[in-house]
Amino acid sequence: QEKPCRLSAALLGEGSEISQEQLYELLRYAALGKCHNAAQPSWCHIYHQSHLAGVVVVVLHEMSQLHFYRFYLQFKHLRKVFRHRFTLTPSANFPVSLYGEGTNLKPQNTPQGLASTSSECMSKSSDLQCDPIIQRYGEKKQGLTSYTLTLEEQKKNDYPIEGSPGCKGYISTECDQQRTDSSPLFGLDCEMCLTAKGNEVTRVSLVDAQGQCLLNELVKPESTVVNYRTRFSGITKKMLLPVKTRLSDIQTRLKEMLPHDAVLVGHSLNSDLQALEMIHPSVIDTSLLFARSEGRRFKLKFLAKAVLGKEIQCEQKLGHDPTEDARAALELAQFFIEQGPTKVAELNLEMLLTAEKLAEVSQNKAVLQPQGCGFQEQLNEPPPLSKPCFLDCLQVTGQKPLLLGRQGLDSSGLCQSNLSTSNKQILQRALEDVPLSKFSIIQFSLGPEYIASHLHAGLHEKVRSKLTDMLTIYAGPFEENFSLKSVKKEFGRCGPIQSLTVVTETFQPYVCIQYEVLEAAQLAVESLNGAEVAGSCIKVQRPVTAAMLDCNVLIKELELDVENEGVIYVAGLKKSLTETDLQEEFSQLKDLEALFLPKDLQSGKHRNCCFLKFQKSQSAVDALEAINGWTMKGSELRSRNALAPGHLWRWIWQMNHSNGKQGKHIFYEKMEQLSDSEQDLRKKVKKLDHHIKKLYRSLQNNTLCIVLFPGVNSTHGSQSGLGLMGIKDDEGRSAC
């Protein structure tokens, strides 16, 4: 009997941003499963993967998270069907990144006149000018200072920087930037586990320039561990039980051990420093040092074998050895500095990687291919360069992916590729071909006339302005000498306040309050309108603007959003309460599945509110009745249905703290008719939503469907993407 597939993604409730690698990790497991050595993704879980009927990825070309919330009401089908959503790291070349590291999507027969790719240049051994290493560093050997990351490079690659958002409370190593070519190198690597806080350090290793281990210490995380990631970290619950060392101890020891001109070396060292919550000015990142085209990176395991001839991260071992990894990264940097860019480029690493992957695929095919299938003839054919590893793996299983899109969508030649000129044609081909394919990528687009103009000419500001209005309420009138402290206290019980100002332009004073979460503003409107506050009977309302005329409709639709099903918002918590305290207090509530305690993304401090997710919708309704008026540690609680899922809450916070526009507000805006182009765009978005609805209804049950707004990462700016996913069930909705 066919088992219903199920998708669990509880960690998404915290609004974590999912990287392209993590998305690839999900797609690989969904398409291949355990029988082809694909691992469960680290951030979500697919139950009964072997019973999946297929995987369908819908890509909305050049669209971002902004588009989804700007046209939220038009995306009626998307918001009502998909239970799981996540913010997606934007990519400069999304079709390439979709297949994971090592992919180079391009037409197999490149027309004459088109620019050749870097891998084609590398095939000419006499000409290294096209090699990304030479393009970045030149041909001459240089000192180590030429290979340390500049401040701009550190910012671009998410290194913790003094004074930058998200780094409040981080500890500086107190090393200066007066490095020279004689400055000492130190290799650093950390292993992390996933906790309620995020990634936290569980092991730290530091080696000196001679490879001697100076530090190899287990660290006990501050928050509750959600996933030890033993397969990669080697850390188990048992190992950490007797550990007393905390992150602050490690920070102190590293500060004491590192000289003032120390240069830290690591592979994707930004992740280690972020987890250590430390800032260091002089770094060499080997994942960037050994440069590749299109922003891709070599894995440390591959570089160690190809450059140093060393085997690390062996499968026989349980997890990675951080000392081994730190030493490998250090030796790679030393090799690069001593040999120079030309010698490194001559290793032709791209070709070595391609050969290694093809050898792996050939080996797998030899094992899986039945005799007498003409496999030897296939091996004798010269393979194309940079053959995508993900497509290769699908080929091994006998699957040929389906790729449908408009002209200009590249294909590797390993897909059944069909180019169309309109979304309607794409949909028609999809309805015919998707049922015949186990893995399909369908790309829709609004058209070139809408992409740049609407994304870069005010879309961000329109969404930010609308969210600001929805987060803002006006309360009053008050008496001339009213107590502002009393007002702040009363309205603060509804949720965290971002700004509070007195409006004096009116005959009697009013107060303008901007909250940090939508639920708090709505709770204030619902519970305090007509109430007596600071000695006055007041009216509470949102600002009257053209953009806010459909606010009530939008609030209602957000409340009915499938992702908010069974989720309630609770305010009035004392900030001294920990997550453990809250779990104990709320443990008596029936069917409580998860608790999310938002925190300030700069200070890391908890807010005075939380979200509770219940397994059943009725249990959430019962909890609302029980919690309203409930007193916890002397504080009266208020609650309502959730409006904004975790990823949206995090995004709202980032928008309100960007561009220096925090706390600004427009009282009234001029009534303007929607331009013909925007009215047309809304119609196109509505039609696009209808196309996806029609495609989704045609899918078999137990089909994993992922809809991606890939985001934008270009010279004009960067906008985060958004992913919606679910497994179709018997009722045509996505199963949990």
Overview of the structural elements:
Keywords: Exonuclease, Hydrolase, Nuclease, RNA-binding. One of its GO terms (molecular function) is exonuclease activity. It holds the Pfam family RNase_T. It comes from Gymnorhina tibicen (Australian magpie). Residues 471-545, 566-644 form the RRM domain. The protein has 736 residues and is an alpha/beta fold. Among the domains are: 6-98 and 393-449 and 678-728, no CATH class; 142-339, Ribonuclease H-like superfamily/Ribonuclease H (Nucleotidyltransferase, domain 5); 566-642, Alpha-Beta Plaits (2-Layer Sandwich), CATH 3.30.70. Strands 2, 4, 5, 14, 15, 16, 29, 32 and 33 form a 9-stranded mixed sheet that branches. Strands 7, 8, 9, 10, 11 and 13 form a 6-stranded mixed sheet that branches. Helix 13 (300-308) packs across helix 14 (322-339) and helix 16 runs parallel beside helix 18. The longest helix is centred in the middle third of the chain and has 24 residues, at 448-471. The model is unreliable at 100-126, 365-388, 407-415, 452-457 and 659-675 (pLDDT under 50).
